[in-house]
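To: structure desk
From: M.T.
Subject: fold request, one chain
Message: Could you run this one when you get a chance? Sequence is below, nothing fancy, just the single chain.
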Amino acid sequence: MSPTPSRATVPVRRRTLASAAALAAAALGASLVAPLPALAAADTPVISEVYGGGGNSGAQLRHDFVELGNPTAADVDITGWSVQYLPARPGPNTRVQVTPLSGAVAAGEHHLIRQAAGTGGTTDLPTPDDTGNTNMSASAGAVLLVEGTDPVECRTAVTCAEDGTIVDVVGYGDAVVHAGAPAPGTGNTTSASRDGAFTHSGNNSADFTVGEPTPTNSAGETVEGPGGESPRSRSSPVTCASTTSRAPPAPPRTPGSR
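Reply: Done. Structure tokens follow.
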């Protein structure tokens, strides 16, 4: 028979277990509040503007759009990449809308992706560099820049941050997929955009502001203010480049709420 341990050893073990439990709880708490990693690296293009109110009531523009910007000092070929769209609160079976990309984004320049058209609006976008048929929400959603064209499988901010194919993500409104915190919600006449330097801190809320849409293509063309009809050269810190491709008009989308 083993000798009976002295009573003095019992509280020592309890204190040890309690200390271990406290450390584990502290570690768990730290992991829950740790900031999400920034998804866009400094050597890649980023999503610079998103707009989902095209063709809606009161909208000037006929189409939704996504704009990319290249904050680096070198041209970046995005052939084989895609922009992908998720609704604000996607479920396991939510369909991801994918728009393949082509060409290169010149250093300091823009790349305009035209998306679905509504039944209203009076003004076409400048000649887009790529086109898709994604019907974006005017108020809340998530746009992802992906190195590849396979639909992403993530449905939360945490799981998307762990996906190595995602180059950048912008969640606006109450979107659950975002970087840091979501950008403010937009409307039929407003977009969410970065500043002219394409500043990227890894926090959508800090990096994006809501204002009048300014879709800009690789030639530096954008649209006039409210009531304007013709594209004009955008006044910005970046230098304009030549447009390399011309895309045909996209078909109108079916009217409905979004």
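Reply (cont.): Residues 1-38, 226-230, 234-250, 252-258 have pLDDT under 50 and may be disordered. Let me know if you need anything else for the meeting.
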